[in-house]
């Protein structure tokens, strides 16, 4: 259905909670729009549309004629005036992130839910909606798309890419697949950090669908395969050119499964903002990184260095079980008691072993926190880095301030510090921040007592999906401390012009409480994870190589150089050997290779491959 397919909800007939449930279901099942109609009595469609827009994040929201009769009766105080309605619609358009469609004419309504009725309505060249009353009805609309998938129009088929068996997509997946000629393609082709043009995106929302997608991918091993959850990968190529992408972004549930143990079951497609918001009423939090838009799937398989790590450990340290689908298509569960070897590997090198479909994570109680953002002007970057390193190392575990700095302008740089004091007392917050504030003159500051969920910002993910362009260049090195030499060489790198931004994530504290070797994630003695970003790999390397030499390892999530040396930086030899052995067991055909692939073949075969 190239024009788009969606559902029509009758606000006059359906109870309020059902309306949002149906809209959320339509979004999860990959439909394109939800139209709120029902002008005669019942709930006001415009209010319902606002409610629906708030409960969803991607799907377009149409509001039928917004309750405005063609010729309003100015004597009737019950009737809305057009300018009031227009203003409300404009507001809703902005708040929904430009997802609002205004009828009539922006969609056409199928007379019933048969494929023939849908095809007839599609003749108008605008998205088609089908009236629904139950979740089952929504699923039937999805099935219409399945039926239609096999008969994609010639204009869509003309944009198919070589080497992909488009006609062989399993039926169970057909509702969610997006081809280059489909209207939804633009919203799924790229990720946050990179531009892409995959040949087929397989959106899976159940374990069965993930298994079918993997089985389909196994028939295409000569093509790149990306696995996508939140689409924020640097090291992970969750998009590609001409290959396949398995997208589990729709598996985004967050459910408390054991309140006594604060155990939460989280889907890989949930954003960390969504997790934080869902746990807010419980007074709990799961630490992640610094950006709410990042997905659970990529972060909870790699590490997770965030504002709460110094108190709670890495995100992977809170994970109690992972469910995934292996390269052979079989579902498996890994925890301390079930497949413990695999569980070990999934916490640091998870992307190599399968597609995670659910995580069970133990949350921690949290109250309001101090949320700080300070901009300081620094003349001597080396001195400021060393100063920051010293203050950060001495800070108590409740205080975590990340740092970013760019190249000097006019001999001065702006150092941005942002982070959390896990304490709601203003005096404590101020005393914790004061040593950081002494690094240089403050030109901007904001310090608030906030809910942790409000700290998790996700302004980076637009409603039209990710629109990244090009290929990021990032290098990542772990340091124990900012020695004068590290600070000087890092400052030189920033000044070189080869590096656009240097960012530092404070580590230490509870991260190092977990014994080295307990997870595949290594180098727990690091005090700082430093990443540099640029656009030209040669220039970034020229600037960064001298600094890297002083590091103790790498956090791969911020590294885009996929050479074997970098794999070695992240995983010391015994860890890498064990990972390789497990890769041989769980992915002998080397299917998962979009994110620092660990080659399962013996060393001599790998060498031959490199030589070719
Ligand atoms: C703006 C920004 C800020 C960040 N801040 C932090 C931070 O503070 N701390 C930190 O630790 N990291 C941070 N990161 C890095 C981030 O954790 C990783 O890039 C992570 O991989 C993104 O996960 P995702 O699901 O959003 O990405 P995706 O692009 O969807 O996935 C990235 C890779 O992860 C793997 N993957 C994804 N889903 C699954 C799955 N279901 N099963 C198995 N493997 C999967 C795949 O190899 C994939 O290529 C940040 C990234 C960005 C872009």
UniProtKB/TrEMBL annotation:
Query: Which positions, given as ranges, span the membrane?
Result: none
Cofactor(s) the protein needs = FAD
Cite the FAD-binding PCMH-type domain residue spans from the record: 193-366
What InterPro entries does the record point to?
A: FAD-bd_PCMH (IPR016166), FAD-bd_PCMH-like_sf (IPR036318), FAD-bd_PCMH_sub1 (IPR016167), FAD-bd_PCMH_sub2 (IPR016169), FAD-linked_Oxidoreductase (IPR050416), Luciferase-like_dom (IPR011251), Luciferase-like_sf (IPR036661), Oxid_FAD_bind_N (IPR006094)
Q: Which Gene3D superfamilies match?
A: 3.30.465.10, 3.40.462.20, Luciferase-like domain (3.20.20.30), Uridine Diphospho-n-acetylenolpyruvylglucosamine Reductase, domain 2 (3.30.43.10)
Per the record, the similarity remark reads:
Belongs to the oxygen-dependent FAD-linked oxidoreductase family.
| The protein's name in its UniProt record | LLM class flavin-dependent oxidoreductase
What the entry lists under Pfam families is as follows: Bac_luciferase, FAD_binding_4
Species of origin reads: Umezawaea endophytica
GO function terms (MF aspect): FAD binding; oxidoreductase activity, acting on paired donors, with incorporation or reduction of molecular oxygen
Q: Which UniProt keywords apply?
A: FAD, Flavoprotein, Oxidoreductase
């Amino acid at each position: 259905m190239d024009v788009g397919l969606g559902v029509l909800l009758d606000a006059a007939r359906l109870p309020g909670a059902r309306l949002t449930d149906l809209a959320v279901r339509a979004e999860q099942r990959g439909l394109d729009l939800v139209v709120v109609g029902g002008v005669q009595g019942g709930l006001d469609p415009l209010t319902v549309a606002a409610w629906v827009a708030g409960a969803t994040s991607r799907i377009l929201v149409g509001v039928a004629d917004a309750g405005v009769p063609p010729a309003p009766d100015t004597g009737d105080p019950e009737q809305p005036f057009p300018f009031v309605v227009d203003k409300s619609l404009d507001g809703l358009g902005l708040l929904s992130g430009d997802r609002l469609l205004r009828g009539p004419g922006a969609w056409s309504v199928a007379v019933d839910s048969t494929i023939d009725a849908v095809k007839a309505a599609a003749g108008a060249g605008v998205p088609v909606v089908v009236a629904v009353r139950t979740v089952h009805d929504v699923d039937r609309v999805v099935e219409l798309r399945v039926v239609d998938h096999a008969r994609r129009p010639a204009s869509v088929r003309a944009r198919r890419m070589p080497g992909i068996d488009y006609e062989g997509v399993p039926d169970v997946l057909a509702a969610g697949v997006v081809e280059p000629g489909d209207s939804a393609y633009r919203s799924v082709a790229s990720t946050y950090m990179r531009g892409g043009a995959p040949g087929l995106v397989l959106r899976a929302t159940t374990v069965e669908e993930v298994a079918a997608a993997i089985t389909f991918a196994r028939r295409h091993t000569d093509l790149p395969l990306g696995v996508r959850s939140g689409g924020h990968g640097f090291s992970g190529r969750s998009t590609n050119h001409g290959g396949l992408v398995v997208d589990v972004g729709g598996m985004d549930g967050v459910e408390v499964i054991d309140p006594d143990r604060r155990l939460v079951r989280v889907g890989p497609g949930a954003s960390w903002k969504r997790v934080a918001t869902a746990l807010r009423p419980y007074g709990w939090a799961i630490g992640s990184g610094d950006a709410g838009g990042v997905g659970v799937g990529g972060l909870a398989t790699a590490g997770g260095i965030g504002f709460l790590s110094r108190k709670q450990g890495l995100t992977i340290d809170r994970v109690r079980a992972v469910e995934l689908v292996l390269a052979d298509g079989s579902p498996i569960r890994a925890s301390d008691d079930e497949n413990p070897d695999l569980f070990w590997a999934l916490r640091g090198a998870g992307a190599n072993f399968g597609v995670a479909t659910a995580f069970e994570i133990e949350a921690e109680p949290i109250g309001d926190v101090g949320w700080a953002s300070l901009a300081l002007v620094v003349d001597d970057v080396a001195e400021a880095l060393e100063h920051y390193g010293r203050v950060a190392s001495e800070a108590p575990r409740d205080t975590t301030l990340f740092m970013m700095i760019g190249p000097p302008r006019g001999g001065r740089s702006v150092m941005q510090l942002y982070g959390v004091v896990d304490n709601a007392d203003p005096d404590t917050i101020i005393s914790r921040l004061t040593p950081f504030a002494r690094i240089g003159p403050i030109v901007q500051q904001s310090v608030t007592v906030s809910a942790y969920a409000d700290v998790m910002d996700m302004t980076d993910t637009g409603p039209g999906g990710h629109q990244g362009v090009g290929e990021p260049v990032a290098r990542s090195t772990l340091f124990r401390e900012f020695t004068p030499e590290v600070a000087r060489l890092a400052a030189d790198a920033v000044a070189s012009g080869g590096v656009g931004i240097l960012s530092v994530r404070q580590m230490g504290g509870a991260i190092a409480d977990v014994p080295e070797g307990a997870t595949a994630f290594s180098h727990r003695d690091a005090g700082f994870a430093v990443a540099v970003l640029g656009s030209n790999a040669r220039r970034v390397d020229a600037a960064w190589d001298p600094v890297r030499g002083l590091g103790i390892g790498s956090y791969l999530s911020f590294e885009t150089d996929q050479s074997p040396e970098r794999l070695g930086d992240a995983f010391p030899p015994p860890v890498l050997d064990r990972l390789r052995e497990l890769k041989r067991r769980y992915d002998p055909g080397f299917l998962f290779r979009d994110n620092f692939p660990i080659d399962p073949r013996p060393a001599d075969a790998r060498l031959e491959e490199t030589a070719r």
